[in-house]
Amino acid sequence: MYDQFLLPTDGSDGTDRAIDHSLELAGTYDATLHVLSVLDDASLTSVSEEAATEVLADREAAVEAVANAAREAGVDVVTSVREGSPHREILAYADEAAVDVIVMGTHGRSGVGRVLLGSVTERVVRDAPVPVVTVRMDGGRGAGGETEHVTTPAAAERRARAALEDEGHDEVTIPEDPYRTTTAWVVPATADGGTYNVHVDADTGATRIGRLDH
Predict the structure, then answer these.
(1) 40 pairs with which residues across the strands?
(2) For a Cys staple, 94 with which of 73, 84, 99, 139, CB 3.0–4.6 Å?
(3) Element (H, E) at 101
(4) How far apart are CA 31 and CA 73, in angstroms?
(5) Other C-beta atoms within 10 Å of 38: how many?
(6) Domain at 4-135: CATH code
(7) 10-residue block means of pLDDT along the chain (214 residues)?
(8) Domain coordinates of the chain in residue numbers?
(9) Residue 147: what pLDDT?
């Protein structure tokens, strides 16, 4: 069903959760994981050649680190580093590699190191022809970094709404009651014409968004 997963990454510490999710998904489906890092060419024009070279080396090291983790987990992996507009390069790679699912974090670096700002993720979610799983880089934590034990459907719905709004969505509605699995709540939702399942970890409140209507 799912043979090719794509993980765009900028190598920042906050993307660890997206990496973990992508490795878990690729392993579950015995799929190939594609690890992509995009250097924002608009930002590169404003820095020195030396700085640009350092960023390139940083990105190459970042994708190789994920590749090593994938190999250790027994997951087939392909890596790529590109320059260009981040969301366009992500979508182009997904098309070229016949990717089935894209896994993205909702936050990342800013400036020359940027690839996974919320606006980039939002554009990919809106324009991708395949499902996009988004992982909040703060782990779905509340103010002050605390985790939340989610015990009721109302609490799960609240966190799901917050996750979608953090992605830049308006007009969020919950058409059905959240339901509980062994470890998480699943919250059906619609936003801006899209249909989603938001998974809310029952122990930590961490959220993962999957779009259903691509």
Answers:
(1) 84
(2) 99
(3) strand 101-105
(4) 12
(5) 26
(6) 3.40.50.620
(7) 91 73 91 94 76 84 91 95 93 97 71 51 88 72 54 88 86 91 88 89 85 74
(8) 4-135, 143-211
(9) 60
Q: d(Cα 148, Cα 109) in Å, to the nearest integer?
A: 26
Q: Tokens for 112?
A: 């020359």
Residue-level pLDDT at 79: 97
| Chain centre to alpha carbon of residue 181 | 22
DSSP string computed for 57-72: HHHHHHHHHHHHHHHH
**Beta carbons of 118 and 136 less than 8 angstroms apart:** no
User: Do 40 and 66 form a contact (C-beta atoms < 8 A)?
Assistant: no
Tokens of 9: 């990454």
User: H-helix or E-strand containing 20?
Assistant: helix 16-28
Q: The tokens 């994708």 sit on which residue?
A: 63
Q: What is the pLDDT of residue 128?
A: 93
Q: Which two tokens stand for residue 100?
A: 């089935």
- The C-alpha atoms of residue 200 and residue 209 are separated, in whole angstroms, by 9
For residue 129, what pLDDT is reported?
A: 92
